[in-house]
Amino acid sequence: MIKTGVSELFGLEYPIFQGGMAWVADAALASAVSNAGGLGIISAMNLDADYLRGQIAQCREMTDKPFGVNIMLMSPHAEACAKVVAEEKIPVVTTGAGLPGRFIPMWLEAGVKVVPVVPSVAIAKRVVREGACAVIAEGCEAGGHIGELTTITLVPQIVDAVDVPVIAAGGIADGRGVASVLMLGAQGVQCGTRFLAADECTIPQCFKDKILTARDIDTMVTGRRLGHPVRALKNSYMQEFAKKEKDPAISNEELEKFGTGALWRAARQGDMVTGCIMVGQAASMIKETLPARDIITTMFAEAEQIMKKTTQWVS
Ligand code: TUI
Question: What is the Cα–Cα distance from 315 to 97, expressed in whole angstroms?
Answer without folding.
Answer: 44
